[in-house]
Here is the input.
Amino acid sequence: MRQSLGELYSTVRKAAVGRGVPHGIAEDLADAVCWLDSLSLDGVSCAVDCLSQWPSNTSAIQLQHSESGLVLETAKPDTAASALFAGPALGDLLQAGAVPDTGSSLSVDVPLLVLAAVAQTCDRLNRRAWLMIHLQGQIAIADCSQETCQLGTVSQQKSVTAHKASEVTLWLSQPDQGRRTLNCLLSKEEFSRCRSRTLAEGLKVCGRSLKQLEAWAALTLVAESDRSRESGAGAGLLDND
Amino acid sequence: MVQNETETLSTTAVPLRPPATVASLARMGSSFPSCLSFMRSLVRRLHSEAWSVGPSRIELDDQGYGCMVYTAHGPERRYSLVGFSNALNDDQRTDRVIATAWDASFVLFDGEPGHDDIDRLRDSVPKQEAGRFEATELVLARANRSMRLFEHVCESLANGRQPDIRLISEIGYLMRTTAVYGNGKFGVADRSRIETRAELAGPFQAEMLTLYMIRMFTTDLVEHIARRRSPVSYVPLDRSLKRHLGIGNATGLGMAPFLVTHPRLLNNWLMAKETALARVRSVSDVAPDKTERLHALLVRARQHVAEWRVDDKRQSERIDQLVYDLEIVTSWLGEEELQKGTDKPWNLVYEKSVQSLSLEGQELLVSLLIETYPEYCQDLVHKMAADETYKLDASDTVEQMTKRLKYQYDWALNIDFDSRSQTCYFWYVSENKLEPRFGLRYEEAGADREMPLAVARDINLLYQDLQSCLPMQSLAEFLLTYPQHRQIVRRVQSLDGYPYGEIQDNLIGSECLPLDILRFKLAFFGAAKFDPKSDLWTRITLYQGAPLYDELDKADADDWWLPVSPGSTGCVSH
Here is the structure.
């Protein structure tokens, strides 16, 4: 189903607000979803997954001060954090220069949304950062910088410790890939092409997921009353002139 | 892309009026159009770039139902208004945004539509919000006939006579739009797709072009119907009457949240206007032709105000006071003090106005002064767009944010939100046609779904929570604990360097009049003859007095500020 960027942004933002998410977080989610869908990465379904699980199936995030910097942790150790808050939090740490040299790791329910948040932060700050996430069953490293994000999968050797599928790790310096090789999924050129195409043609989004978002967005609306109907433009004894 | 949008504009001897003065609701609600208005910008461009605008396709039956296409040819691109006129029962006709049928519906098409496009649009455009659109559609709009005027004009022309000039002057339009949508709504093109085009970079230029061509549509439609009705006795509409017909609009709360959610745009509009005013006030030696010009414009303004009649008691009283104010201004201009080469005479007049005139009188004088010196606006027009991409700086500390609030938002921190009168209202979106509304918090349901427009209250809540944190704590930490403040923090930081970005009033307090927000925005559109129907909506007329599409090449194509009835003193002539 085709949506303009503005429409999708508005629907996602309202859906999040309809689910009780604070407005600023809802805006960040809408930005992330638009970013993902402009790259054909089904941000809409990510938003549905994330909003469905929040708050009951996700953990709050807390910040711990350590020698190396600020460390993000989930309040419940065996429960992933919601990407609603994890994405902005990682972006904020990146901006505040509070990411430890060893990186910042967190278990997150929808890692792709964190990727979007980090990539957009790098774009806004003109900084470079690397993010490891799991994508389609593989470990992927995103190299995020201004106006671009290059995504590559890693061919793992057996000796590499398997990460949890929900874990994301943010680094400020390029991670040592050791015997791993990076296969490009999304090049710099493809990134620019996708964004241009979005502006020219709009976005093709998953219809079923969009319907769910629209249903949540409708929760922000107020049923009209006689009094409210009387106060709209054109209202009065004579609706015509 | 807007460049240097907050750069200090030319320094002036007289400083700009401060935000506390200018960005109050009461003063905003007393605004008048000026040469900075968006309709004026559009017409100047059509003139200076020698655009040709006219009908490219007319397929109407004897009753005027069918399709018309108007195309505007510019130096680099073309844009087409595709309009559909259809039958509508009188009991279906309403100005309400919740309507489902209209006398006419329109779309602004990017380029010239082919047959397939027209067929597709014929199906979707009359449905308006219920239709789906492509990125080739830039603007969506609809309009209803004026029951008072449309048939009168048809019948008059069909019978070989011109319509009653008093009726035309009183009503001012044949049709009025009830909604104009752009920027991605219902699938039309996102603004980011077109904002790099020079002709559409300015605020609302696509919408202004749409309305300009709808105006043409309405006069051509009425002439078509009259001609088909009585081909032998038909006469065309007199040019001066045609020029005096604009496009009506019923403007409600849908427009109000925009100014709150686009604060950088608000800043840039006010910055341009205040800079223009400061430049005029700083003029030391006034050339004789400028004095003459101002006098001529003042005569026109007095006539325009004399013709401005409304039913609303409050506005009617304001107009009566304005008539009196303009008499006073006229007497000042005759005073010896101003004749004798006073230094900065316009500044003297302005300062006298602050002491003696109503807010409407002061703001009309402001527009008059700016209108006298259009050359002072030429560079400012290009600085009125804005990049509304906001950035949050999580590296700031609690202490830095607290200081910022005290500096930028002292006006908000002085409001006592413990008082019920300061939280009297709430803004919300109705489930019927997604119409923004203004509810009574303690009497109506829905406050739990309030729109985030209560900036002053949110500033206070943020300030309170900041006080409970350590000063050197980063905002990254603060926002993890208080995520509910993320939006307002981002707003505050993003408006650093945008002094006019906030409406400096409580938008949920008992004193809030949403009409003030509407009038301010409409004045920047270029609307005149505000006709309030309640505290929440107003009728206006757009493009009244503007050059017709075959007059765009005339030297005085931009001289239509505050138009007056044809034949009256101070009439705009082309």
Q: What stands out?
A: Residues 205-229 of chain B form the longest helix (25 residues).
